[in-house]
Each structure stands twice: as structure tokens, then as C-alpha cells.
Amino acid sequence: MNSPVPAAEYDVIVIGGGPAGENAAAYAIANSDRTAAIVERELVGGECSYWACIPSKALLRPGHLLAAARHMPGITADGLDVEAVLRRRDEFVHDHDDSSQVAWARDNRIDVVRGTGRLAGERLVEVDGRLLRAGHAVVVATGTGANIPDTPGLRDALPWTSRDATNLHEVPDRVLIVGGGVVASEAATWLAALGARVIVSVRGDALLGAVEPFARERVAEGLMAAGVDVRFGVAPVRVSRPDVADTGEGRIHGGPVTVELRDKTGTSVVEVDEIVVAAGRTPATADLGLAAVGLPDGYIEVDDRLGARGVPGDWLYAVGDVNHRVALTHMGKYQGRVCGDVIAARAEGRPIDGPRFAASADHAQVPQVVFTAPEVAAVGLSEEAARRAGYAVDTVELDIAVAGSSLARDDYAGHAKLVIDTATDTLLGATFVGPEVGEQLHAATIAIVGAVPLATLWHAVPAFPAVSEFWLRLLEARRG
Amino acid sequence: MNSPVPAAEYDVIVIGGGPAGENAAAYAIANSDRTAAIVERELVGGECSYWACIPSKALLRPGHLLAAARHMPGITADGLDVEAVLRRRDEFVHDHDDSSQVAWARDNRIDVVRGTGRLAGERLVEVDGRLLRAGHAVVVATGTGANIPDTPGLRDALPWTSRDATNLHEVPDRVLIVGGGVVASEAATWLAALGARVIVSVRGDALLGAVEPFARERVAEGLMAAGVDVRFGVAPVRVSRPDVADTGEGRIHGGPVTVELRDKTGTSVVEVDEIVVAAGRTPATADLGLAAVGLPDGYIEVDDRLGARGVPGDWLYAVGDVNHRVALTHMGKYQGRVCGDVIAARAEGRPIDGPRFAASADHAQVPQVVFTAPEVAAVGLSEEAARRAGYAVDTVELDIAVAGSSLARDDYAGHAKLVIDTATDTLLGATFVGPEVGEQLHAATIAIVGAVPLATLWHAVPAFPAVSEFWLRLLEARRG
Asked: Please, which domain of life does this record's source organism belong to (chains A, B) (predicted)?
């Protein structure tokens, strides 16, 4: 190996320019003359901006809005115009041009270094042969990649991953989605809305494993009502695609795919035009040089300050999906903010013992919205998780059926549940299901993070006639 | 006067069966064998259910949803079909049949007494010659009626009040709305959406006087963009309608109306097909017999337990608009709940010193949504009100321009402002403007009522990509 060119110096080097890494870099150098670089091998903005949250929501929103319009007397609505929806999605992913994100970096005095970053020692990062040295900190924010199971014939069939499904250019007539999590449930929603006949094969007995059971059931019912064939306790065991070709991201990769599915009772065969694999994620650390800093391959374990455990010297951090705390963009960004604040404080010799310097919300105060039809919005602990954690738990739940929901659309159907810590009379968790309940979630997040007692929530009056009146109904039901 | 028949006995008598009165009655007798009666001279369910909140929102929602659909590529939407919208409105007001509300009362063991209730002495209510005696309490919940100014010719022109505008059966081609408050702003919104050419004459220099100035401006801009002619500093000084006839609620009351409008510079004349008066409210106490219990005519002043000031014996209460605390349905219902709890506790000899027994939110924690286009959602104190109250105030504000808002619709435009008490680092007020921001409000209400410090709100992470991400932007902007 030739010796690399002399190292470039930055105070902070972030490997991986997704939202978590961007936040870490910006916060680490804010209001200072520190310097930062983001090393990115694909697009600055990351998975979320180009291949996940943004394109998926751009594909989902028109379908949700159309459904609302169609259930409102006085409006006549046609759609979806698939081409128009895909064009709007293309605009949201900037046709995979990251120049606006690069401009953001420049405006925040962050250099963008193109290439694959690899840890080369303490405070050292190598980017395709070029050495960068960090004055203060290195932050790993490389995220994860789609996991392709070892099912015979599956890899050779060139299945779609989430990236193809969010960036589809052709809507397959018939599609099999393998998986039962958020990606599978949302992809099934938009593919069906865009006209595909969709089968979802779920290994377990429910969609969206971690959420309250009623939410899982309502999402499955919603998919089935949209014509999706949801099969539980089923897994592909053999895949065959004789006519196969990589025609590019989001394009159908050849001829029909034959998939043998097995459940408890036997096997069945389906033929589809594309297969989407949404079967978990793998940390994007294979090329990261973790061994060079004494870490095993895989996810990077961190403490609440986002510092890598087992690495002395307080210089290595990991934020976002790669630390395996919470695989959600907004929590990765949150970690990035906390991490950046920690780096800044340490660089300036300030104490880091305040609440600002701990990603405390990661553990039991995580909000998540699943943009299916109906939507699922959940924050904190499910009843099951709360009981498992040893809390004395009370719950209250009811259908969301208030004046505001009836007015919103004629087919409004929703459900809400609160999980209450009886010892403190505060909320541990909240789960809502229904159209656009994602926008109802932040109230619950504030109540949980703020530890607002239910006796106080009694005086937080929902405006009438808004959908949020269901909060009043929940508190009344709790009172009995 | 003949002596009335022997008095019927109830533990609690409520005069006025709107939402506030219904809540007071239900809470006063809950989980007890106490008895209650609601005295109602019109429809059980009250102004809100038949002539205000419900029909107005039924008229507004289709227009809002149509606008959203029209700004979503991939959807082609026609509308509004006026007949369909009016039919849906009729369903929401149950064609002015209150049997479902009467059934609710029966299910809650509340008798409905038809007629005009009048206070006849301590714990005595006369209903059209029949005497009712209250064992514990009488609650006045008669609300308010529309105020018609003394403008020459105005009464003779049989103008529409809010009742006609919410229950319109014919859409006037040309309509003048007199007033600049919530009723005027909302009526202008739906009348324009249903095809009327609308002029709004506002005496002052802004719509929606009490809200943050930016909210007033955005609502005015929204109306103007919808083709409404909003005129400030203008008042009608003479009205003439030669061909006039009372053709029924929500029907055009005769031929064209000529209205002379005066502003600082002079007078102008407009001709319209109907005139809507939305110029304030008058307490519905004229027939209430307030003198019999030693009270002056007008609004009934109450303390935080909703007890009428100046009436000894703790037996007379007033809830809802008639007590002039907050003229909003949800706050009237809130008062009803508190009042009912107070009555129940006193009846059972329990102490009433807990927070449950005070309508504490009435003073500075009141949420309100104005369902214009854009919507206005506000809770707590405006900056001006906070400064006037002597707080050391900081503010932060910005346009609502996050991924979630861009995804929601292509023309999303919104703005948000927080008013912060610098002494405690908590929120005093929040105001949001934009499409459907009404559903964003409860988060702010919980933060304010819960007195959650901003340092804690930092860990209440909005889910991505929801519109509620603007909370993060506000906190980041505050941090600077």
C-alpha cells in the first residue's frame, strides 16, 4: 500500500450524510469556528431523502387524500393518475440530485467529501486512499441496507428492495411483498393505490410487530379492504425467474417470478411480475474498518451521549440506524443533535451533565407514524411493553368517533388507546389508528415526555369540533 | 296569577340544553341516584349542534378538502356540488330533530322539560307556569343570541343571522356580511366556496381581533384570494329593502338589499341579495327572571366554580356563553364538567378544594380554532396579551415549511408562533395558521396546561415526515 497523501484536518468528521449525520455535523460546529466534513459515498441527504421516508410519503399521500375526497359528498374525484404521482415523487427526490443538500452543507460550513469513509485508527478516516484527521470527533452515521434472505433463487431473481419500491417507474401488475413491517405495509398501500394486485407474505401472525394489537389488525383490515392479499404464517421457500435482467432501480427486473410459499399446512405457488423484499436491515458497516478501532463488525453500540462503547478517548460516536437504538429518521436526527451538542461541549470544555446531552427519549418515548390506510401513530410503550417493564398499568381505549372525525370524512374510522402508569398518573404510551392520526401524535409525545399527570390533562381542553376531541373522550372514559 | 301546580322536584335543574348544560347535568348526577332535569325551549343540543359549530363546519369541510385535493397532482376533483353539501349539513343537524339528544338525556337519567325556564326564587324554576324545585342546584346555560345593531333599515330588511347563514337553503348570488369576527370570517369562507360573491364590511382594521396579527392578515389574504371583497374601517349606515318577506330560516328574505357603507373617506352603496349580520352576541337572559334572585339583567358573573356571584347559598350556577367567560362550545362543556363536579361534591359533602373543582383553563389557557382557509389555531396568550399581563416574554415564529407540509399539498402555506415566559421557560401561548392546523393545536394546549419547559420539549421529537415537525423548527429557532 502506498502511503496516503498528508491528512486533511477537520475538527469533526461524519461518515454518512443522511439526516442523522447532517444534524451531528451542524450541531457540533454551530456558533463556533470549528470545521466539519461529511463523507458520503452516495447522496448527501441519505436513505430517507431519496429512497425511504420522502418518496414513500410522496407516493402515499395522494392515495390518502383521494380516499378522503371520495368520502366527502359534494366532491367528485378521479385518480390516481399514476404518471402525475410518480412525477411528483421524482420532484421530492430531486431526481436523485443532491445539490440542494450540498448547498445546505456549504451554508453550514460543512465540507462534503465524496467517497467511502473507513475508520483508519484513532481520529483517522480514510476516504478512498485519502486520509482525514479529526481534531475532536468522528461520527459514524452510515445507516443500514436492505437484507435479502437466503431463500433459494431469491437473489438470482433480482428482487426489488425498498429502494426500488419507493422509486418505482413501472407499476407491476402483480407483486409479492415479502415482510410484515412498516416498509412492507406502506409499500403494499401505495402499490395497491397505484393499481397493482398485491400479495403480502408475512412470516409471523401480524403486521407491524411492535405496535398495539388493535393497530396491527386495523392495518391488515385496511390492506385487505384495498384488495391486498395478506397472508400470515407464510414464507417464500423457493423463487424462480428464468427471464431476469437488471433493468434499473424501480423498473421490473425481467419476466414473471414464480414463488413457492410455505405455511403450516403446506405450500402454494404464486406467479407475480415483481417481488419486493422488505425483510429487515443490515448495518452498513462492512467497509467501515471497525476492526481498526477495536470494534466487532455489526451495529455500533453507544451510550446515551452517542459515544461508541469500548472505544477509549471520547472521540468516536455513532448516530442513526447504525447504532441500532431506533431505526427512525426523526430519532436519528435527534441523536445527531444530542451528539453534536456533546461534541461541541467537550470541544469547549463545558460540562455535559445536563439533560440536553443525553438522548433520553430513545428508550421509551419514541414516536412513530406508519402511513398506511388507516395510519398508525404510536409513542412510548405499548401495554405489553409497559407490563413487561414492570409498571402498574391501567389502560383506556375507544373508537375515535367525535364530531370532528365525522365531519372530516364520511367513512372516518379510528381507535385510540392510552397506557397509564397508575403510580404517577402519567402516560407511558399512546396509540392512535385512523386517517391522518399522525398529526395527532405530537400531543401524546408532549404529554409523555413532559410527564403531565392525567389530572392536569383534564384542563387541556380539545377545541371543538376537532378530531382531537377524542382526548376528552379518553379522559372521560378513564374517569369512568 | 293563578297558583302553579305543585312543584316537581329534581336535585339539579339546568336551564338551557346546549352542550354546556348537558355536561353540567350529566356530571352533577353521575354515579349517584340524584335526579336532574334540563329545561329547553328550542332543541336539546343547543346552538352549537343545530345553528353554529356543527352546521358551519359541515359547510366548511368540503371546501377545505376540495382545495387540498385540487392541489395534489394525480387527483382530479370537481365540486362543490352545493346540493350535496347542503344535504350533508342537514344530516349533521338532524333536520332540526333533537330526538337523539333527548335519547342521550334519557340514557343519562336526565328529564327533558320543554319550555322556557325562568328563575322564580331560591332553587325554584318556573317553566311556562309549571314550578320545578331543585334539591341542590340550578344551572343557567341559556347562552346568547345574535345581536342586531340599530342601523337604520337593518331590522326591517330581515337580515340573516348566523342561524340563517349556517342553515342556508339558497346561496345568495351577492351577499354582504357585517362583522369581522369568527362567525363573519367563517361564513364568508363557506359562502364564497358555495359560489356567492361576498363582501365583508369590518368596522375595525382587522379580522379576528384577539388573535396574533399575522393570523388576522393571513385569514384576510385567504378570503381575498377566494374572491371575497374584505373592507376594513367600514360600517353600514343605512339599509333599504323595499321587497322584503320572511321566507324562513336560511332562505333569501325578499328582493335586493341596498346598503350604504361609510368609511373615513365617505360613503358607498352596494346592492346584494342578502345581508348577514355577525356583529356580536347578547346574553339570553331577558326572560330568565334574574331579578327574582337579586341579579341584574345581562351576563351572569361566576367564580371559578361556576357559582353565580352575589347569590348566597351555593345553589345557582351559570355555564357556557351566558357567563361571559369564554364563548366557545368546548370551554362551555369544560365549565359544565367542572360545575357538575362541584355540585356533586357539595351534594355528597365532599371537599371542593382540588384542581378538578376550578375552571382554571378559562383564564389564559383557552384553545380556539377558526375554520377559515387557512385555519387559525391559537391557545393561551398572544404576545400582546402576555406583555400586557406583565410577563417577560420571548417569542419565536416561522413559516410552517417542513417535509410534511410540502407532502400534504403542493400549495401548503402556514406560519407558527410561540410566546414564551422567559422566567419559567414555558409556553404562554401558541398560534398556528395553515391548512388543518386545528389538529396541531392540542399539542400546544398540553404543553401550556402542563407547563412543560422548553428544555423538556426538546426531547419531545415530532415524527418525520409529519407537519408537526414545525415544532422542532420552532425549538431550533428559539435556540438560535
From this structure: Bacteria
For residues B273 and B174, is the Cβ–Cβ distance under 8 A?
A: yes
Q: How are strands ordered across the β-sheet holding B257-263?
A: B235-240, B257-263, B266-272
Q: For an interface test with B, give the residue of A425, A464, A472 to mutate (most B CBs within 10 A).
A: A464
Is the model's pLDDT at B3 over the cut of 80?
A: no
Prediction ipTM score: 0.97
Beta strands at A197-202 and A229-232: parallel, antiparallel or unpaired: parallel
The region that residue B335 occupies, defined by phi over 0 for left and psi between -120 and 50 for alpha, beta otherwise, is alpha
CATH architecture designation of domain B374-479: 2-Layer Sandwich (3.30)
Q: Is A353 on the interface with B (CB under 8 A)?
A: no
Contact state of A446 with B450 under an 8 Å Cβ cutoff: yes
Within 13 Å of residue A346, how many CA atoms lie on the same side as its CB? 21
Measured between beta carbons, which residues in chain B are less than 8 angstroms from residue A334? 459, 461
Average pLDDT, chain A: 97
Touching check for A411 and chain B: CB below 8 Å? no
Q: What number does CATH give the domain A8-45+98-145+282-357? A: 3.50.50.60
The vertex-B256 CA angle with B181 and B258, nearest 5°, equals 65
Test A69 with B75 for CB contact under 8 angstroms.
Answer: yes
Number of A–B residue contacts, CB under 8 Å: 274
* Partner A contacted by B443 (CB < 8 A): yes
Rounded Cα distance between A34 and A30, Å, is 8
- What is the mean pLDDT of the segment spanning A356-380? 98
- Residue B363 burial (10 A CB sphere; 0-12, 13-18, 19+): exposed
- In this complex, the residue of B19, B53, B74 whose CB is nearest that of residue A84 is B74
Q: From 3.10.450.50, 3.50.50.60, 2.30.180.10, 3.90.980.10, which CATH number describes the A155-279 domain?
A: 3.50.50.60
Taking residues A419-432, what's their average pLDDT?
A: 98
Positions of CATH 3.50.50.60 in chain B: 8-45+98-145+282-357, 155-279
Helices (H), A142-298: 162-166, 182-193, 213-225
List chain A residues with CB under 8 Å of B101: none
Asked whether A143 and A18 are in contact (CB, 8 A), the reply is yes
Contact A361, B459 (CB under 8 A): yes
Taken in order A299, A303, A304, A305, the sign of the CA dihedral is negative
Mean pLDDT in residue range B65-85: 97
